[in-house]
UniProtKB/TrEMBL annotation:
InterPro entries: Bact_solute-bd_prot1, SBP. It comes from Hungatella hathewayi. The lineage of its organism: Bacteria, Bacillati, Bacillota, Clostridia, Lachnospirales. This is Carbohydrate ABC transporter substrate-binding protein. Transmembrane segments: none annotated. Residues 1-25 form the signal peptide.
Length: 438
């Protein structure tokens, strides 16, 4: 009896083991591949949620988790995330990220959609011939104007595509504001422009970019340079002076250092207090929230510098995704497939443009139109080749654009520095900051 019982128990154990083994094999086949996206473009989160839902519906074997942290806090939060719960896909934005995470960036050179990437859009995250991050969206800046307002003043929008044409148009509108001719239709209108130099990135990063493009073709070239030749600072001065001269503080430019982004946008352009600000397509959602009717009147003029960048918009990629090389092969495959779907499948492309409100850095989006006139203008400029590199400043020493160039412009506007001193100090600080950041 004991022998029979032992044999029976042994058989039961074998059957149980076999059953468990079978369940394990079946479970692994039916289990979903789960990936996590950790991203910094908080404005696009609802669009991403829509994309994920659509993708999961057609790919039931994949589960995608989405986490978003605002850009101001993202760098620190990503470092913490990598220590506790590393994501599959994560946002990267510049050379510091390449330095910090270079050892875990998956080589995605074989990503299908990269065949359609616009020239130069993968350069920042290409190392030793390997593409290590996929470009997500482009942004562009120039002079955002209330086109209807200028046309009501008798100025043809197309006549302002050069610096001289823009200056003539701005002068015409200024004269009509000063004479009171615009008051009845635009009771809030005070000035042609606002120039919020309290925001160091406006007079720093963006305006100094024109100077840097004289010396460097790319952000990488700037990043690799220990010194700044400074050959473009005369053009930098031209654009600073131009903007300041059309504000209500033209006769006391020190006051511009107290004007912030909100005053220029939600409290300026969006309520028709001013007719123009130097900004990019990213302002469209804020204008739409304030007054959708004003957004419909807007358009964007190029960042025209006389004899240098007439008719050109400053454009560049400002967001990338990388894939974590430490995750499983199944997760890598799912991550790549989702990115390819997002930028190659018509359903994904529609969400990218209409819901995420991105200007795609790819040439395969056909006739898809942007959801706002500013993004459409940048898409058209890309197609026509009417662009210059708007992100050369991202290759400057860390914080140089704002804490060196931006601060020096504030001193200039306040009458505390000559332009020669602005130039000399900015050049010296480039060298010292580059040396200290080695």
């Amino acid at each position: 009896m004991k022998a029979k019982r032992t044999a029976a128990l042994g058989l039961a154990a074998v059957m149980a083991a076999s059953l468990l083994s079978g369940c394990g094999a079946g479970g692994s086949k039916s289990a979903k591949t789960e990936i996590t996206i950790y991203q910094s473009k908080i404005e696009a989160n609802e669009g991403y949620k829509k994309a994920i839902a659509a993708y999961e519906e057609s790919h039931p074997d994949v589960k995608i988790n989405l986490e978003a942290v605002t850009g101001n806090d993202f760098a620190a939060s990503l470092k913490a995330k990598m220590q506790s719960d590393p994501p599959t896909i994560f946002s990267v934005g510049g050379f510091q990220d390449l330095k910090d995470y270079g050892d875990i960036l998956e080589d995605i050179s074989d990503l299908e959609v990269l065949k359609n990437a616009l020239p130069g859009t993968t350069d920042m995250f290409t190392k030793d011939g390997k593409v290590l991050a996929v470009p997500l969206y482009m942004e562009g800046y120039g002079f955002v104007v209330n086109r209807q307002m200028f046309e009501d003043a008798g100025v043809d929008f197309e006549s302002m595509m050069t610096f001289e044409g823009m200056k003539a148009g701005f002068d015409t509108l200024k004269a009509k504001i000063d004479s009171g001719e615009m008051k009845e239709k635009y009771p809030n209108l005070e000035a042609v422009m606002e120039y919020p130099t309290k925001e160091l990135w406006i007079a720093g990063d963006h305006d100094v970019n024109v100077a840097l493009t004289h010396d460097f073709d790319t952000a990488k070239a700037a990043y690799d340079s220990a010194t700044l030749p400074g050959t473009g600072f005369a053009d930098y001065k031209t654009m600073v002076d131009f903007q300041a001269s059309y504000t209500t503080n033209a006769d006391n430019t020190a006051n511009l250092n107290s004007v912030d982004y909100t005053a220029s946008l939600e409290g300026g352009l969006a309520i028709e207090r001013v007719a123009s600000i130097k900004q990019g397509n990213w302002i469209a959602p804020a204008v739409e929230t304030t007054d959708p009717e004003v957004l419909a009147k807007l358009d964007m003029l190029p960042y025209s510098v006389p004899g240098y960048s007439d008719g050109k918009y400053f454009v560049g990629v400002s967001g990338y995704w990388a894939i974590n090389s430490k995750v499983t092969d199944e997760q890598k495959a799912a991550a790549k497939d989702f990115i390819n779907w997002l930028y190659k499948d018509p359903a994904g492309q529609k969400i990218v443009v209409e819901d995420c409100k991105f200007v795609p850095p790819y040439d395969n989006f056909g006739d898809l139109k942007a959801g706002d006139p500013l993004s459409q203008r940048i898409m058209d400029a890309n197609e026509a080749g009417d662009t210059m590199n708007g992100w050369v400043y991202s290759g400057a020493p860390n914080t140089w654009g704002q804490q060196a160039a931006g601060v020096e412009v504030q001193k200039y506007l306040a009458g505390q520095a000559t332009w020669d001193e602005v130039t000399e100090s900015s050049i010296k600080q480039w060298a010292s900051m580059r040396e200290s950041q080695k």
